[in-house]
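DM from R.C. (forwarded with permission)

"hey, sorry to bug you on a friday — could you get me a structure for this? deadline for the figure draft is monday and I only need the backbone to look sensible"
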Amino acid sequence: MGPQDRSANGETAGRIEAAGVATQAEPEPLQLHVFTEFQAEGEPKHRSLHATRADSNGTLRGQLWQVTGNAEKMRFEEAESVNAFSSDSFSWHQTLNSNLGDSDYAKVGQVARSEPPPQARNRKEVMENCQGWTIRVLERLASEGIVNEDTIAALRGQMDPID
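My reply, with the result:
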């Protein structure tokens, strides 16, 4: 074990030592969540998807997939190492899969990247926003067995109206 394996107080980081043999501790499982955040007063809440894992401090960090912008011309965005719980606008979250395997994680990213963001020619023609996009992504993930159909129905029932 080298000096990089010890924290400032001498504890081993991410390693378990038994009978003189150092082994790497199993990482926490990835979890898939839908996050909801408050926006400006009168605006619908923002929804996004996150695949998170607890870091060494117990903070849930991970991959973010979302669409942003006004409802007429939304764009896809993704980011790594996001701590969604730290957002001042955080409202609530729902865990969709508490043990997301590597292949399912890759599939979530592929589906999110390929699902078209909401678009409309003008405000009057807006039919959906980030909440609708999230539901479409989740429906595709349900067809792959990654998320539960019942959870999608519950999330659909909590959607804000489109004005």
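R.C.: lifesaver. The CA atoms of residues 5 and 13 lie 6 Å apart.
me: no worries. Strands lie at 15-18, 21-24, 30-37, 46-54, 60-68, 75-82, 90-100.
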